[in-house]
Amino acid sequence: MNLSIIPLRAWFAALALGCFGLVAFGLALQEMLRLSPCPLCIFQRLIYLVIGALAVAGFLLPMARPLWVGSIAALALLGAGVAAYQSWMQLFPDLASECSFTDPNLIERLVDWLGMQMPSLFLATGFCSSKEWIFLGLSMANWSVLVFLGIAAYAVLLMRCKA
């Protein structure tokens, strides 16, 4: 299949819609199932929003594609790392020091600050090692690892796309 027939802006638009859709789905699921997101969950939500904003920037200014795609790939890998760490915490809760039980790290301080600014979107009330939602045997953190890796692969395709 010749991917170059798809306009570059459409690639960026699809990524933005996908990221914002994931955040909307997560918020709806949180509300419907009364889930309590943890600081790492909220940080991943923030990364999805920033990736979506960068994709909007790529839609508006496609000539700066290397900047947008490089930033998106780096954030996707960061998100995958955070989600993998949370997955490890969920797999080995006895070995992990729970979020918010020690001195807050940089991520927790950022999430706390964002939670005070926009509680409906960023308030963290849960524990990082708990698995409140499981789908097809995977927790939300497990799914997030896969999605972030998918976004990183998408960024590679976006870079290789002939504009």
Write a concise keyword list for the protein shown above.
163 residues; mainly alpha; Bromodomain-like; two-stranded antiparallel sheet; 6 helices; 69% helix; 2% strand; elongated
Molecular structure report:
The chain has 163 residues and is mostly helical. The protein has a single domain, classed as Bromodomain-like (Up-down Bundle). The protein is built from six helices and two strands, in the order H-H-H-H-H-E-E-H. It has a two-stranded antiparallel ribbon. Strand 1 and strand 2 form a beta hairpin. Helix 1 packs antiparallel against helix 2 and helix 2 runs antiparallel to helix 3. The longest helix has 27 residues. The chain is elongated and about 50 Å long. The model has no long low-confidence stretch (mean pLDDT 85).
What's the layout of helices and strands?
Layout: H1 8-33, H2 39-60, H3 65-91, H4 106-117, H5 119-122, E1 134-135, E2 138-139, H6 140-160
Antiparallel strand pairs: 1-2
Helix pairs in contact: 1-2, 2-3, 2-4, 3-6
The main β sheet shows up as: 2 strands, antiparallel
Which strands sit side by side, in order, in the main sheet? Answer: 1-2
Structural class: mainly alpha
Residue runs with pLDDT of under 50 for 5 or more positions: none
Strand content: under 5%
Q: Count up the domains.
A: 1
Q: Count of helices? A: 6
How many strand elements?
A: 2
CATH architecture: Up-down Bundle
- Bulk shape: elongated
What is the fold-level CATH name, i.e. the topology?
Bromodomain-like
**Going by CATH, what is the homologous superfamily?**
DsbB-like
